[in-house]
From TrEMBL:
Gene name as annotated: thiE
Positions annotated to bind 2-[(2R,5Z)-2-carboxy-4-methylthiazol-5(2H)-ylidene]ethyl phosphate: 290-292, 320
This protein's name: Thiamine-phosphate synthase
Pathway noted in the entry: Cofactor biosynthesis; thiamine diphosphate biosynthesis; thiamine phosphate from 4-amino-2-methyl-5-diphosphomethylpyrimidine and 4-methyl-5-(2-phosphoethyl)-thiazole: step 1/1
Every ThiD2 domain range: 33-151
Cellular component, GO annotation: cytoplasm
EC number: 2.5.1.3
Catalytic activity: 2-[(2R,5Z)-2-carboxy-4-methylthiazol-5(2H)-ylidene]ethyl phosphate + 4-amino-2-methyl-5-(diphosphooxymethyl)pyrimidine + 2 H(+) = thiamine phosphate + CO2 + diphosphate; 4-methyl-5-(2-phosphooxyethyl)-thiazole + 4-amino-2-methyl-5-(diphosphooxymethyl)pyrimidine + H(+) = thiamine phosphate + diphosphate; 2-(2-carboxy-4-methylthiazol-5-yl)ethyl phosphate + 4-amino-2-methyl-5-(diphosphooxymethyl)pyrimidine + 2 H(+) = thiamine phosphate + CO2 + diphosphate
Gene3D superfamilies the UniProt entry points to: Aldolase class I
Species for this entry: Chlorogloeopsis fritschii PCC 6912
Top-rank taxon: Bacteria
Positions contributing to 4-amino-2-methyl-5-(diphosphooxymethyl)pyrimidine binding: 193-197, 225, 264, 293
Keyword annotations: Magnesium, Metal-binding, Thiamine biosynthesis, Transferase
Length: 372
């Protein structure tokens, strides 16, 4: 409000009369309030993301980028904008949505806050043009930086979880698929591949979407077997490719740099080629003959031993591994294993998962490729 001096004859004194803002000044105050609210949103959202980068991922690089952006945002948060704040008169303080009341997983929490930050940056980009020269340009560039941060963070999380994963469940068709996978997740499983060679695409998509939601609610990686298109359709964390599937380079172009790509290998040549082509992890096997690889001879423990000495990326021994031979595979050098029937056909998938992990977690992990 503006103040103006005038003479009040009834009191023989000067009193202060209050005049309303002009229309232009009213609009200016509204713009200031919009800028103030969205500057707060960006800073708060970035701080939530930064805390996970710092304490959840132990990534000084990602946490540092969040902090730098917070400080840049703070430099635009002037006293003039703060003075326009009117929290009691803000009609939006009581607005909420049921989805805001709970988060199903760390991923959903982070995605919600990235959306909040990105939307607020777009508001600042547009309304900032009415406030200061270059403000719109500055926040446009920051919005792109946040997009990059989101992509890097999600990719970093996947790769770090891959490095920590010791047990990999490859599913097989079964009526109680979701129940079996969830039982394994309750046992500590952190890596799941959906594999069904015979179902139609509609069925695959429906099941894959449910499995992805289930895996992410337990903070586990979800991979699709063979099909890059299905992986993209259901927003999976990656794809696993056989030797006869599309080249890794093409899959990478389609999936982008931050989703995971695995490759099945049966010998040293296939291993070295997969590493050279940029696979994030490989399968090593089949260690023993298995009905899931009909007609494919076992690679044996010799190949496991070779991988232990020569493979520079995460690898999983696979093929006929069960609770009775897991320690033979470990003794041959495996630190990670992938299984199908041992869990999918188990009467108590949770207990079998826990047993596998108890054996694998006794091993001191060897250094491997790190991700930024």
């Amino acid at each position: 409000m503006k103040q103006a001096d005038c003479y009040d004859e009834s009191t023989n004194g000067v009193v202060v009369m209050v005049e309303p803002y002009s229309q232009r000044e009213q609009i200016q105050q509204v713009v200031y309030r919009i800028l103030d609210a969205n500057l707060d949103r960006v800073r708060e959202g970035l701080r939530i993301i930064e805390e996970w980068c710092r304490f959840g991922l132990n990534s000084s690089q990602l946490a540092g980028e969040c902090k730098r952006m917070r400080q840049e945002v703070a430099s635009w948060h002037t006293a003039e904008l703060r003075a326009a704040r009117d929290t009691p008169g803000d009609a939006g303080t009581e607005l909420t949505h049921p989805q805001e009341e709970q988060r199903a997983s760390i991923k959903s929490l982070l995605q919600a806050n990235f959306c909040r930050v990105e939307e607020a940056l777009r508001v600042l980009e547009e309304y900032g043009k009415l406030y200061r020269p270059n403000m719109g340009k500055a926040f446009k560039q920051m919005r792109y930086r946040v997009y990059t941060l989101e992509s890097n963070l999600m990719g970093y999380q996947r790769h770090q979880l891959l490095l920590r994963s010791r047990l990999y469940l490859v599913t097989s068709p079964t009526e109680n698929l979701l129940e079996t996978v969830e039982a394994a997740l309750k046992g500590g499983l952190t890596l799941v591949q959906y594999r069904d060679k015979n179902a139609d695409d509609a069925t695959r998509i429906a099941l894959a979407e449910k499995l992805r939601q289930l895996c992410h609610s337990y903070n586990a990686i979800f991979i699709i077997n063979d099909r890059v298109d299905l992986a993209l359709a259901v927003d999976a964390d990656g794809v696993h490719l056989g030797q006869q599937d599309m080249p890794i380079a093409i899959a990478r172009q389609l999936l982008g740099p931050h989703r995971l790509i695995g490759r099945s290998t049966t010998n040293s040549d296939e291993m070295q080629r997969a590493i050279a082509e940029g696979a994030d992890y490989i399968g090593v096997g089949p260690v023993y003959e298995t009905p899931t690889k009909i007609g494919k001879p076992a690679a044996g423990l010799e190949y496991v031993n070779y991988a232990a000495k020569h493979c520079s990326i995460p690898w999983f021994a696979i093929g006929g591994i069960d609770p009775n031979n897991i320690n033979d595979v470990i003794d041959a050098g495996a630190q990670r294993v992938a299984v199908v029937r041992s869990i999918m056909q188990a009467e108590q998938p949770t207990l079998v998962t826990q047993y596998f992990l108890s054996q694998l977690n006794r091993i001191q992990p060897s250094p491997e490729k790190s991700y930024v």
